[in-house]
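Query structure, 457 tokens:
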């Protein structure tokens, strides 16, 4: 009977926990009132494009919504791209010609304007930073030309990146979104826009339950710039920022991987003038704590050129604050590549790394001044700490544990010291193809040596 009582208690406890989660944000029994309020501000977008080579007239349909009652309508850039004519159809059947105010291809957003008096209702924008996985959301749009279609679901994930675009911060949802829904609103249960439906991953072109929306906070920034200038110029500080992996965080003696690591700093750029150096860890942009590199990039991008921006940093474990003046991002930020080199051989390696000290001839070939202290990686053993850390032949090791790279003998001393201090990882700073790269090098070779053992037959 004791076992049955324990089982019953566990079931009751689980039910109570589930009930408390459900009570946190229950799905309303009826969404009709929310739909009734929001639908008048949701529109269908009809586009006429240039006639294609196969004779098609290029007609296209999408979705949008009124973001400002004075006549501003939001949709996706890919909906109105290359349009000759754009028409906006309202829920009550009215159809109006629209003018294109501006587009932002990086965020895939476009702003249209319809004649004054066309609409008196706009959808309010929510704070998309408050939107979390599990929140209920509602999508309204024009899938397959069926205007006013509604679907409900939950937020599946946040901060999704598609096509490796720097400014991607998609909200993933399982609310059904199909062809023609692009540009429509994703609403929370307060009736606020938390996203703009934009993309769908599907193996067959239909709804596969993996849909993506541009966050409302990105929309708010883009719309303000398009209204003011008709285009979007993003802020730039001239520094490459990277994610902290858990291994790198441990090598930096950080309690977590929150923050962003400064890599290369552009000479004479805002970051260089403010004194940022590779290896700095950005923990705050302004008053906002940051979790990863893309959040840092977005916050900098949204800063006005010419404005002052304060960055909170950790520099060699010491808190530092710097203030810099944000610039416009250049259209082309180039990178110099280091030339390849022929190196002399060395038989012994440390943690699977075989390295050479720089001779005057080698420095000349690598275009390195005498002030640069570095070791050249000649080879990396397979199944070794060096291979696990993705250190590659041709890399230049410039720092170890945030100290200038020593001689080969000094490198081994640094590794021995780190082991004696109980460190699992040691931080190495590399130059690779002209870029600064950080790697966390595991101190133990034992787990790798076993992988190299070949059993006797």
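Result returned for the query:
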């Amino acid at each position: 009977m004791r076992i049955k009582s324990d089982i019953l208690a566990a079931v009751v406890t689980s039910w109570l926990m589930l009930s408390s989660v459900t009570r946190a944000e229950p799905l309303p029994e009826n969404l009709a009132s929310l739909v009734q309020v929001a639908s008048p501000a949701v529109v269908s977008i009809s586009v006429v494009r240039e006639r294609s080579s196969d004779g098609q007239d290029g007609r296209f349909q999408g979705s949008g919504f009124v973001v400002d009652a004075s006549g501003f309508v939001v949709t996706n850039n890919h909906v109105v791209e290359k349009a000759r004519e754009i028409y906006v159809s309202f829920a009550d059947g009215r159809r109006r010609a629209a003018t294109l105010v501006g587009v932002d291809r990086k965020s895939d957003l476009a702003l249209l304007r319809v004649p004054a008096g066309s609409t008196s209702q706009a959808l309010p924008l929510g704070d998309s930073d408050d939107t979390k996985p599990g929140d209920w959301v509602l999508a309204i749009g024009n899938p397959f030309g069926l205007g006013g279609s509604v679907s409900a679901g939950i937020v599946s994930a946040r901060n999704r990146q598609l096509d490796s675009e720097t400014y991607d911060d998609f909200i993933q949802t399982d609310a059904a979104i199909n062809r023609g829904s692009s540009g429509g609103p994703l609403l929370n249960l307060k009736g606020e826009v938390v996203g703009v439906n934009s993309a769908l991953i599907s193996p067959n072109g239909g709804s596969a339950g993996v849909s993506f929306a541009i966050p409302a906070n990105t929309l708010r920034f883009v719309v303000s710039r398009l209204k003011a200038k008709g285009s979007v110029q993003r802020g730039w500080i001239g520094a490459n920022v990277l994610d902290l992996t858990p291994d790198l965080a441990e090598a930096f003696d950080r309690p977590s991987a929150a923050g962003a690591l400064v890599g290369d700093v552009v000479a004479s750029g805002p970051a260089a003038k403010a004194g940022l150096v590779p290896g700095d860890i950005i923990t705050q942009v302004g008053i906002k704590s940051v979790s990863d590199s893309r959040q840092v990039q977005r916050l900098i991008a949204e800063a006005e050129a010419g404005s002052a921006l304060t960055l909170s940093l950790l520099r060699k474990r010491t808190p530092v604050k710097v203030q810099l003046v944000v610039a416009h991002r250049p259209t082309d930020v180039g990178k110099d590549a280091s030339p390849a080199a022929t190196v002399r051989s060395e038989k012994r390696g440390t943690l699977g790394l075989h390295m050479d000290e720089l001779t005057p001839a080698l420095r000349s070939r690598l275009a390195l001044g005498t002030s640069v202290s570095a070791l050249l990686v000649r080879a990396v053993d397979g199944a070794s700490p060096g291979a696990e850390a993705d250190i590659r032949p041709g890399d230049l090791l410039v720092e170890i544990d945030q100290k200038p790279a020593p001689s080969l003998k000094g490198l081994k001393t640094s590794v021995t010291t780190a082991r004696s201090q109980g460190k699992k990882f040691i931080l190495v700073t590399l130059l690779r193809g002209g870029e600064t790269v950080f790697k966390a090098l595991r101190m133990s070779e034992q787990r790798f040596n076993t992988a190299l053992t070949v059993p006797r037959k």
